[in-house]
Amino acid sequence: MLFCEQCTRVHYEVVPVPVTIKDIARAARMSHSTVSRALRNHPSVSAETTARIQRIAEEMGYVPSAVARSLKTSRTRVIGVIVNRIADPFFSRVLDGIQDVVQDRTYSLFLASANYGLNDDQAIQAMVERRIDGLIICATYMTREYRERLDRQGVPSVLVHNRSAEDAENAIYHDDIFGGQQMTRHLIDLGHRRIAYLGNAHAGRSSHERLQGYRMAHAEAGLSVREDYVLEANSGTAQSGAWGASTLMALSEPPTALFCYNDLMAIGAMSALQKAGLQVPGDWSIVGFDNITLSAFVNPPLTTFDQPKYRLGQQAARMMFDLLDDDSEAAPRPGIVILRGSLLARESAAPPAE
């Protein structure tokens, strides 16, 4: 009902009434329960009847009520996702994989950002208060205490790149040791013997495992690692990459190649070297990790390790639905999944000039 001040009359606004299952049942001349099952593609209803009911529902403009469905099933059909930084190009692609699987199951996402573990507790509390059905946590420090808290709340969780040292019960990891080996071995095969590694102190497990792969590749080639070539920055940003390159350039015998924890750091390192008048890859070779979109468009295009980011997100979402669909405590749990990417050779790495 609206009141018009100009004509001093009351006008009535017609608000469309949502179509209900009872309305569809009357139109189809079928029972409420049959219509309800047909709309959910239940196998007890024939394909012909299901198609007819769904056609009638579409013609009548029926929209399922998420509120009613959640009251009936005790589920909100919402999956929570926590990431360190939403703006990180790595996680944007992981989120694409999660989103596509979640949408196929007619669920929604509730997204929160935590800054390197500082706000994990608040982010988890916000998720629980919104009665999410499950929580996917991407690349943060998910301690046993947090997981037990979620268990007490009855919220299943799946971890992507958990950075804490301990293994989680349901988690998706990338084989970072293998990736670190591949990147270092590529530089060794090009002829480099003075190879540095620039890690990220806040990345925890993933940075340590890439460093482990770096050390293993050296050992396999019969080479020793110079400890002054191993640095840890305080973040995974381009600025940290520039800091690392500047620190290494100041050594009496600088390296000829640099393996960076991620692409952003590699891009920052490359920029610092070029500003100092050095050629990449003529004077230094630079390699990164992750294969973010930007890595193909810098000059020169960056050699990197192509993590299956989209597939990491897909697998995490599928694992979550395996947990939600599992009504039997005796059924096997999803467990831990480890994926492998592949080296992507571009133009930022070449044989040493000397």
Note down, in words, how this protein is organized.
- The termini are far apart.
- The longest helix has 17 residues, at 309-325.
- This protein is of the alpha/beta class and 354 residues long.
- The chain is 41% helix and 16% strand.
- It folds into 3 domains: 2-64, 434 Repressor (Amino-terminal Domain) (Orthogonal Bundle); 74-174 and 310-340, Rossmann fold; 176-307, Response regulator (Rossmann fold).
- Helix 5 (89-104) runs parallel beside helix 12 (309-325).
- The strands form 4 sheets. A 6-stranded parallel beta sheet has the order 4-3-5-6-7-13, sandwiched between helices.
- Count the DSSP helices: 12
Main sheet specs: 6 strands, parallel
- Assigned CATH class of the largest domain: Alpha Beta
How many structural domains are formed by the residues?
Answer: 3
What fraction, in percent, of the residue positions are helical?
40-55%
Distance between the termini: 84 Å
What is the averaged pLDDT score? 84
CATH-derived topology of the largest domain = Rossmann fold
Q: What spatial order of strands do you see in the largest sheet? A: 4-3-5-6-7-13
Which structural class should the secondary elements be placed in? alpha/beta
How much strand? 15-25%
